[in-house]
UniProtKB/TrEMBL annotation:
Name used for this protein in its record: Peptidase M20 domain-containing protein 2
Family affiliation: Belongs to the peptidase M20A family.
Domain of life: Bacteria
UniProt keywords, alphabetically: Hydrolase
Domain Peptidase M20 dimerisation intervals: 171-257
GO molecular function, one term: para-aminobenzoyl-glutamate hydrolase activity
Membrane spanning stretches: none
Length: 388
């Protein structure tokens, strides 16, 4: 039995443990940077397979687990996400991501004595909010990694994924309170400034490229109808296909905010309320290898490439190391992530079977990279051309 057959058998043998990881995280949803149960579970599970676990300073629910091969070589990292959404739990299926990456790392690590290189499982908190992968990149966690990968559940299976670069902006206006009926002329209406900001952005949209996205909410808009609001706050995500253009759009949005300040007299301040994400650059050479393995596992319904319209901190990883972020279907095409229907799918038998298939495809692709020097050379060559 060759190594690939042994990896598949190994994962079939431990599938109950993979399903257990998925169920435990699914049934105990935790918000970003609060995933103490999920992080502890994954560290305990992977330690049993001979991995050494390192904590990450400043990120209590992040970790790096390592298992070295017989000698130095290609270092492959499987990324686990495990944060949930507010109120709606694992409606993005991060429980399945964690289970698949755990399984892949355990399986490939089990073959480490016959391989050159190193297998890593990297625990990545808070993808839905402050994107801990951004901080992990800045801390140098990926500096000595040769390839990084994970699989995300979706409503279709595809291997060539992309995402939008994104910045999270909060605008605050400070006005002056006054009686809205008796003395409105003595007030400065901060809410008017926020409303003008929204109107300015709505006018701006027709002058932007089709891939640009700007969407926001008002988080503070006054206390009572008969008081001129002296404080109003709005939050926006600004996105675009590439970071360069996203930053151009960001400056245009800030100009809209300044215009509202000038028009109303309310004093403007703004900040990033979450970390920004780079656009995801899929390494197509790696993705092709993953696709071949997925097909050999019996998955034939693989969709053509589609441009992503969301954002992920995996984009930041893909800017410093060759990376893939394929999707595997757990629902039909009319079901969106972050919905009640997707939540149900993430806890379903179909979802867990998808995690098992994902673990197999990830581990087999990792094996390809660790044993095929020519493949790894092509992966790095593509990365140098498309990213560096």
């Amino acid at each position: 039995m060759d190594l690939k057959d042994r990896i598949v058998k190994f994962l079939d043998d431990i599938k109950s443990e993979i399903f257990e990881v998925s169920d435990e995280i699914y049934n105990n949803p935790e918000l970003g940077n609060q995933e103490f149960k999920a992080s502890r579970l994954l560290k305990e599970k992977i330690s049993k397979y001979g991995f050494s676990v390192e904590e990450i300073e400043g990120l209590p629910t992040a970790f790096v687990a390592r298992k070295k091969g017989r000698k130095p070589g290609c270092r492959v990292a499987f990324l686990a996400e495990y944060d949930a959404l507010p109120e709606i739990g694992h409606a993005c299926g991060h429980n399945l991501i964690a289970a698949a990456s755990f399984g892949a790392a355990a399986a490939l690590g089990a073959m480490s004595e016959e391989l050159s290189g190193e297998v890593l499982l990297i625990g990545c908190p808070a993808e839905e909010t402050n994107g801990a992968k951004v901080i992990l990149v800045e801390k140098g966690v990926f500096d000595e990694v040769d390839a990084a990968m994970m699989v995300h559940p979706g409503n279709k299976t595809t291997v060539y994924s992309t995402s939008l670069a994104m910045e999270a902006l909060e605008f605050e206006y400070e006005g002056k309170a006054a009686h809205a009926a008796a003395a409105p002329h003595l007030g400065i209406n901060a809410l008017d400034a926020v409303i003008l900001l929204f109107n300015g952005i709505n006018a701006l949209r027709q002058q932007l490229r089709p891939d640009a996205r700007i969407h926001g909410i008002i988080t503070e808009g006054g206390k009572a109808p008969n008081i001129i609001p002296d404080r109003a706050v709005a939050r926006f995500y600004v996105r675009a296909k590439d970071k360069k253009y996203m930053l151009e759009v960001k400056e245009k949005v800030i100009a809209c905010a300044r215009g509202a300040e000038l028009a109303t007299g309310a004093k403007l301040s703004y900040r990033n309320f979450e970390l920004g994400f780079d656009n995801l650059v899929t390494n197509r050479t790696m993705a092709d290898a993953f696709k071949v393995n997925l097909q050999k596992l019996g998955c034939e319904d693989i969709s053509e490439e589609e441009e992503g319209i969301g954002s992920t901190d995996m984009g930041n990883v893909s800017q410093v190391v060759p990376a893939i972020h394929p999707h595997i279907a757990i629902t039909e095409g009319n079901v969106s992530a972050h919905s009640v229907e997707f939540l149900k799918a993430a806890g379903s038998e179909r979802g867990k079977q998808a995690a098992l298939v994902s673990a197999k495809a990830l581990a087999l692709t990792g094996l390809d990279l660790m044993t095929d020097e020519e493949l790894m050379r092509k992966v790095k060559e593509e990365f140098e051309k498309t990213v560096k």
